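Researcher: I'm preparing a figure for a lab meeting and need a structural model of a single chain. I don't have an experimental structure, so a prediction will have to do for now. The sequence is pasted below. Please return the structure as tokens so I can convert it later.
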Amino acid sequence: MFASLRGEGGLVAYVMGGDPDPVASLESIEAVLRGGADILEIGIPFSDPIADGKSIQAAAVRALSSSTRPRDVLEITREVKKRHGVPVVLMTYFNPVFAAGVGSFLDAAGRAGVDGIVVPDLPLEEADVFGKAVRKRGMDSILLAAPTTGEARMKKVVANTSGFLYLVSVLGVTGARKDLRSETVGLVKFARRFTAGKIPLAVGFGISKPEHVRAVIAAGADAAIVGSAIVDMVAQSAAGDGGALGRIEAYVRSLKRATLKGRPEAE
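Model: Understood. Here is the structure written out token by token.
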């Protein structure tokens, strides 16, 4: 997918699987894909989402309240892959993977058509063994790097990630921010020193506006990741707002347009 972009930036759009229920979740995903997302990231709802802020926490509660389980999210993935050719990344904490059995979970994910897996609470020290198990099944093991990641650790993260490197742009949890921190551009340029020519670089956490997307792409990121702002619109749809799905589509389209303008060669 990254090779096919040919100079433009990519857009990774996150939704919580099963929010507010599996059927409605598919409707939100369709809106996101109509808007032009290049990669779909689907979250598995979990009761203790330590990396997530209030928006995604609330989405997890809604999904769990409708009895959404990991197998339901995999079924959503299977349906998405049947309808569309878009790459699907699964975001899950390690507890559901461990509870199902690592091999069994990965086998089921592979059969469902998952292309990559992000496990935010997976220690780097355990990423090698887990990554080999993921890649053995034809999927990518996508690791995260934080603003506090130094040069030595960044080299290890880059060496162990596949698909792309997920760069966390701010300290703290997920959540839409009004402004992009000035340090983020410098962080992207720092990470780019290690990823250039090796692995695509995608930047997430706090990105919620087209100008945020444009800034990180212009700084050297290969993609921007947007989640909480989309999840907030899904919440509006869940509350009975009939126009929310249309706004999701329009919003994602505005973000995708920003990836075209973000690349210097696209100016």
